[in-house]
Amino acid sequence: MPSFQCQTCGAAFDVARGTLERFPGWKPRFCRAHSAKKRAARPGGAARKFVPASVFAREENLTLAQVLAKYSGGPTTGVFTDGSSVPNPGPGGWGVVWVDAGAIREARHGRHPKTTNNRMELTALIEAFRLLPDDAEVIVHTDSRLCIDTIETWAPAWERKGWRKKGGEIKNLEMVQELLAQRRAHPRCTLQWIAGHSGQRWNEYADSLSTAWMRDEL
After folding, report:
1. Whether the Cβ atoms of residue 202 and residue 97 lie closer than 8 Å to each other
2. How many Å is the maximal CA-CA distance in the chain?
C-alpha cells in the first residue's frame, strides 16, 4: 500500500490505491489527524481545496481475534500477505496466512527494527512461497501492485540485462532475486493483487500479523 509522510506531524500514513485512483494526480500531504486542519484560506478568503479525512485508509491494528470477529468477506481460499513499517522507513513487520475453505493451514509473521514498507511486502511474499510445496496451486494475494509489477514484469527484464535497469540501481535487489526464484519454483501458483484495508477477512488477518510487533497480544 502506498505510503506518504504527513507535512504537519512527520508521521507516515498509508492510503488505499483505490482511493488514489479516484483522485488522479493527487499526492496526499497530511495524515488523517491533520488533513481537516489544513483548510487554511487562500489570500482573498477562498478556501483551499482539500480531501476529506474519511478517504484515508485506517490502520486499525486489531488483534487476530478482533479481525475474525469483525470481518467475514473476501476470498476464503488462498495465501494472503502483508507488510508495513511505521514510520516508513522505520520498524516494521510482515505477515502471511494460508487458508483453505476458511480454515487456517499455516500462518507466519515477523518483524525488523529498521526497514521499509516495500521490504516488508517483499519479505511477506518470499515467506509465502517458502511455506508452499513446489506443486501448490493456489492464489497468493498481495495489496502491493509494486511487488506484482516488479516480479511479473520488471525483474525478468532486469535479469536479461544482467540485473541492470535504466535510470539507476535496482532497490532491494537481493530480495527481488529471491522472490523471483521462489515465484518460478511455484509455477502453478498465481500472484494476484487484492485491495488493502477493504474489509476482506484474510487480507485483514495478514495485516494484523504484520502489525503484531506493535501489540502485546497477537
Report:
1. yes
2. 66
Tell me the C-alpha distance between 110 and 195, whole Å: 22
| Residue 197 designated active-site | yes
**pLDDT for 13:** 76
Residue 151 per-residue DSSP state: I
pTM, to two decimals: 0.74
| Catalytic residue status for 82 | yes
The one catalytic residue among 74, 78, 92, 121: 121
Element (H, E) at 209: helix 201-210
How far apart are the C-alpha atoms of 133 and 99, rounded to whole Å? 14
> Tell me: the pLDDT tens digits for 138-185?
999 999 999 999 999 999 999 999 999 988 899 999 999 999 999 999
